[in-house]
Amino acid sequence: MHDCVKQFNEAKYGMFIHWGPFIKEHFGEQESLNPDGRFYALTMKNADSFDAKHYNPQQWVEIAKQGGMKYIVLTATHIGEYLLWDSKVSDFNAVKGKPGRDLLKEFCDACRNEGLRIGFYYATSLLHICFYEKGIPYPPEGDRITDHPELFKKLHDINKQRLRELLSNYGRVHSLWLDSFSSTYHPIGYETGADGYIKPVNELKELCEMIRELQPEIMLCDGEPSRGPNQKGYFYTDSAIRSICTAPNTTNENSFTIYNNLNWGYHQNCRVRTPKEIIFTLIDCATKQSNFLLNASPRLDGSFPEDQRKVILEAGEWIRNNGEAIYGVNAQSPRNMITSSSGRFALKNKKIYFYVYRWPTDGNICMGGLNRKINRIFLLSSGQKLSFKQNENRATINSLPERDPDKYCSVIVME
């Protein structure tokens, strides 16, 4: 378990992919969610024409790899309940549907071909039980599913069967998002331990134990930022818009959409983030001890939009030159902070990495809070040595080029 936590923390950068028949191309996934079942109805409607004719997971994986990402998380099933895998639990899946093939297997094969780690997103919902299987009433508004024991048992049994398929038939799975589980299993699925942290109990504990039995080294997230259990093998996540959220003493991951809003599914009229925004968010996450999961949004037919591909690859060029300062770095200790008004810092082994957000006009950068003697300072991308003066815990770099040599963000290394 220690190795999988270490590998997850060192990866730092991954791709999230929201894709399936739940996508409606003139608005995104988040916009279509609402309690009256329209999201599920959209999935049912699109399922008839969802043929994945341009689905090419090898291309997706190559874009992620060239973009500097180390793992990919795919929506194996979303709240609309359409399964991308060959299932004996439900006929509402890609093999028995129009694609006529196991889309998840193709994705896993492509990831392994390129050496990227595999993650699955799995959402649970009452919609499948109450709409696809006819005649079962949806709980009244305000009711919890746990107030309806027969309905809750049915949903729990379906989750167990599906997850057993998902985690038994596709080899090693490195991470699993369990979205909507905190709300579905609340309040009987959690209790607060003596350490003050929320932990799974009862049916949810049973489910987590089954997952661990099937995939002992998996990193597990329940998809709810307020309830990530503080245990090894779990990670705390937040789907953020503007700020990076981390929880103390936990393994962290922050997911952002590639669009500059909350749309997780493909949206033809939304602006994608710039390479600079992606790079700065990655640095922000890395220097705060968090992974960054950037969500990409293929079209309904499986084709990967050119505007998304372009910004991912351009950010990837920066990562190729500066990846040493991203993968495996650690945040500074709050008790011993190196500071500068010009940027951020991170640590790895005996090196200090300085991400220069604001390039000085006079060629000088000052730093405080140094608790070690600095022997050498250089630019990471070029190796150019920089002259400096150190006086106890302060240092000044005084030989910087007139202009920032990197159009996005230069990284200075101190040894």
Give a nutshell description of this structure.
The chain is an alpha/beta fold and about 425 residues long. The chain is built from 11 helices and 17 strands.
What does this structure look like?
The chain is of the alpha/beta class. The protein has two domains: 2-325, TIM Barrel; 343-414, Sandwich (Immunoglobulin-like), CATH 2.60.40. The protein has eleven helices and 17 strands. It has helices at residues 2-11, 29-32, 38-47, 57-66, 103-114, 127-132, 149-168, 181-185, 202-214, 275-286, 306-322, and strands at 13-17, 71-77, 117-123, 175-179, 190-192, 198-200, 219-221, 236-239, 252-257, 290-296, 343-348, 351-356, 365-367, 377-379, 388-391, 394-397, 410-414. An eight-stranded parallel sheet has the order 7-4-3-2-1-10-9-8. Strands 11-12-17-14 form a four-stranded antiparallel sheet, with helices on one face. A three-stranded antiparallel sheet has the order 13-16-15, with no helix packed on it. β15 and β16 form a beta hairpin. α4 runs parallel beside α5 (103-114) and α10 crosses α11 (306-322). It is globular. It starts with a helix and ends with a strand. Residues 31-36 and 223-230 have low confidence and may be disordered.
Topology:
Layout: H1 2-11, E1 13-17, H2 29-32, H3 38-47, H4 57-66, E2 71-77, H5 103-114, E3 117-123, H6 127-132, H7 149-168, E4 175-179, H8 181-185, E5 190-192, E6 198-200, H9 202-214, E7 219-221, E8 236-239, E9 252-257, H10 275-286, E10 290-296, H11 306-322, E11 343-348, E12 351-356, E13 365-367, E14 377-379, E15 388-391, E16 394-397, E17 410-414
Parallel strand pairs: 1-2, 1-10, 2-3, 3-4, 4-7, 8-9, 9-10
Antiparallel strand pairs: 5-6, 11-12, 12-17, 13-16, 14-17, 15-16
Helix pairs in contact: 4-5, 4-11, 7-9, 10-11
